Amino acid sequence: MSENVFLLEMGSRVSLKRKEKNLTQEQLAEIIGVSLQTVSNIECGKKGARPENIVKICHALSCSADYILLGEKSESQLKGISRAISSLNEEKYQAVEKIVCLLQSE
Fold first, then answer.
1. pLDDT of 73 over the 90 cut
2. Mean pLDDT over the full length of the chain
3. 45 and 56 Cβ atoms separated by less than 8 Å
């Protein structure tokens, strides 16, 4: 994977998580102690984040560095989904199973 693609994908994940938390770029910048331009550059894939800022971003957005850097879900995320699915009745479980199969075939 080229550096440009890596930075674009990483920036996209930061943007997605920031929006999930209902934060503006300005608010995220303030939380992690960087400029608005820095957050904008990260999200647009123009520049990478320093390691210490990746840690701050992960804390601010409640996600793992594996997710921000690689797009991989953390063990705790997967366990949470697994717990939720295991508590479903059989009909709902089968519906989730069908959805997962459909998503995998895309």
1. no
2. 92
3. no
What single DSSP character describes residue 2? -
Quick one: pLDDT at residue 1? 66
DSSP H helices, 2-106, are: 3-20, 25-32, 36-44, 51-61, 65-70, 75-86, 90-104
The dihedrals phi and psi of 47, each to the nearest 5 degrees, come to: -145, 150
Contact status, residue 85 vs residue 93, Cβ threshold 8 Å:
yes
Which residues are CB-contacts of 43 (< 8 A; sequence separation ≥ 6)?
A: 11, 12, 14, 15, 18, 25
pTM greater than the 0.90 cutoff: no
Q: Round to whole Å and give the CA distance between 87 and 96.
A: 12
| Contact between residue 56 and residue 33 where contact means Cβ atoms under 8 Å apart | yes
